[in-house]
Amino acid sequence: MPAPGTDDLQVQRGALPDDVADLAHRLVRDATASDGVAPLSEGAVSAIDAPEGSPVVHVWSPAGYAVIVPGRDDEPAMIEAVIDPARRREGHGRALLDAAFNAVPAAESGSGVRVWAHGDLPGAVALAASMGLTKRRELLQLRRPVGAGHDLPELVVDPTVELRTYAGPSDDAEILRVNNAAFDWHPEQGGWSPDQIRERVDADWFDPEGLFLAFDRADDGADKLLGFHWTKRHDADLGEVYIVGVDPAAQGRGLGRLLTLAGLHHLARRGVSEINLYVEGDNVAALHTYERLGFTRYAVDVAYG
Which residue in 40, 82, 118, 249 has the most C-beta neighbors within 10 A? Predict the structure, then answer.
C-alpha cells in the first residue's frame, strides 16, 4: 500500500502554477503561526516564486510542499519542506521527503543532499531519525533585548576607520567583493552576483541608513571597503543583524564588533525591543563576538543528511 498522500504528490522544475504557489505560501504562513518558527528560509520562500528556467525543483501535494535548491560549486542540494499543521502525523511528511530526495537531479545527488529542519522541532527530529538522517550542520539563532535596562556598549570608532552608511549603487561593487571574499566557504551567502545585491536593496524592508560600511582612512581615496553590516527590521519590535562581512585581508582589526555594534545602535534608535541574528554553530570567533555583545541562544536550525 502506498504511503499516505503519495498518489497526490507532484514534481516540477522552474515556475509553479499560481494556485500551487499560493498553496505553498499559505502552508508557510499556517506553519509559522502554529509553530512559532518559519518552516522555510528566506531563500526557500523566494524560490516558491521561481521563474521559468530556474533550476529549483518543487514537490507538493494538498498536504505539503518541498523545494529543492541546487548547491553552489561542490555544496549539496538543500531540501526545505512544510506540512499543513492540520495534516500532521498522517505520514505526509515522510512521503513528501521521500519524494523530494528522489526528485533531486542526478547531478546534485552525489554531493550529499541535505534537508533543513528549522527550529529542529520534535516532529522533525523524530522524522529524521526514522529516515536514518543525522545532523550535518547547525545554524544558531541568537537574540538580545535592547532598550531600557538593556544598554548597548558605547560605539567607539577607530580613527583609522571611516564608518558611513550606504550611498547608493556606487557602493554595490565593493559590497559584493567583500561579501564573496568573506563568505567564499558559505553555501548560501557566498558566490553572490549583482542580482543578489539589487534584490535586497529593492526589498520593502531595505533601509539605506541601516547598511553600514567601514573604509580604511589610510587608503587613498578611502574607497576600498573593509567590511559591512547589513541590518534588517522585521517589524516594530524585532530587528536583525542580517549580514556582517569583513574582508579576510582586514581581519584582526576588531571590525566585526565595530560594525555589529553600529547596527545594534541603529536598530535600537529605530525602537525595536529585540534583535536576532543567525550564525553557524561551529563559527567560534563569531559566537564569541556576539556573546560578548549580549546575545544568547534562542533557537537552532539543523541540516540533516
Answer: 82
Query: C-alpha cell of 294?
Result: 549580549
pLDDT tens digits, 91-136? 999 999 999 999 997 656 555 799 999 999 999 999 999 999 999 9
Residue with grid cell 576588531, as numbered in its chain: 254
Assigned C-alpha cell, 303: 541540516
pLDDT over threshold 50, residue 2: no
- The C-alpha angle with vertex 251 and arms to 250 and 254, in degrees rounded to 5, equals 105
Distance of alpha carbon 183 from alpha carbon 228, whole angstroms? 13
Summarize pLDDT for 48-98 with one digit per residue, the tens: 999 999 999 999 999 999 999 988 777 789 999 999 999 999 999 999 999
Residues 6+ apart with CB under 8 A from 144: 150, 274, 275, 293, 294, 295, 296
Contact at 8 Å (CB) between 196 and 231? Answer: no
Contact residues for 222 (Cβ-Cβ < 8 A; gap 6+): 162, 215, 216
* In contact, 301 and 42? CB cutoff 8 Å: no
| CA-based radius of gyration for the chain | 21
Q: Find the length of the chain.
A: 305
- CA-nearest of 239, 111, 241, 223 to 175 is 223
Inter-residue contact 290 to 132 (CB < 8 Å)? no
Q: What is the pTM of this model?
A: 0.80
For residue 259, the tally of other CB atoms under 10 A from its CB is 26
Indicate the burial class of 35 (C-beta count within 10 angstroms; 0-12, 13-18, 19 or more): middle
Tell me whether strands 296-304 and 238-246 are parallel, antiparallel or unpaired: unpaired
Q: For residue 253, which phi and psi values (nearest 5 degrees)?
A: -105, 10
C-alpha cell at 62: 494538498
| Amino acid at position 167, single letter | A
- What grid cell was written down for 138? 547547525
